[in-house]
Design goal:
300 residues, mainly alpha, 79% helix
Length: 300
Amino acid sequence: MTEVLYKNLQMIGYTVVALIAFAANSVLCRMALKDNAIDASSFTAVRLISGVIMFIILFNFKAKSPSVKPANKSRYWKSGLMLFIYAITFSFAYISLETGTGALVLFGSVQLTMIITSIVRGNKLHFSEWIGVAISFSGLAYLVYPTLTTPSLLGFILMALSGVAWGIYTLAGRGSVNPMKDTALNFKYTVPLVLALMLVSFPMINISLNGVILAVMSGALASALGYTIWYIALSGLSETEAAVVQLSVPVIAAIGGVIFVSEAISTRLIIASILVLGGILTVLIGRWQFVKNKVGSDTH
């Protein structure tokens, strides 16, 4: 019992750290692009290459390196492609979308992608999971409602595509047995795509030192380390749980604004936090009860 509790607490810890990293990514991207400190293509390129360099540094401190040829290259090409699509569309979408609208479109797309995939695979959601997803999403919608604007069609499509790509990337990580190696290879396989991007966008490059620093922080810390931890956390989450917990990212970002930027604690943030976290709790308890009942029926 103690071992099970320890593993559950470990999974919760990994999940919370990963979600904080996701929120940090959103903040860093918004700071860099909204202030025109760097263009979207360069931000994406520096972000992904910084992730690759971070893994090179990390594996130099390890006895075993991931430089061995991967057994299934197509798997890493697919994950690398999804990572690249998510990153580039995310960056360009933020140029034309307000933060609240972008968050709603992005995480709505992630939810739909992961839940539909789960249903197609035969893992139908039970009643409490549907209720939990609905409660959490309503909390997100309530949080961002004051900043919602009619999105540009291009911005909407780009952010929706980013959410779909991230949902697929997340689903691919649920089967990871070596999260650090897999994430490193995923980043490695984005390099050819990054080089192609830089060749195409070279005439439009706009870089400042501040923009590069923000992109490096996003890539080396929030992305490389955050995505590795996320892959670790995924081993203890169902597809529905992995989908719904990500709805907390905008809430975490807002709370971060209160803590680090001295933003006011609003009634809207408190209510939204209760709804999002309550919905997540509903999903987690519902899944736990479902598994418990299933195990009980299988032993009879």
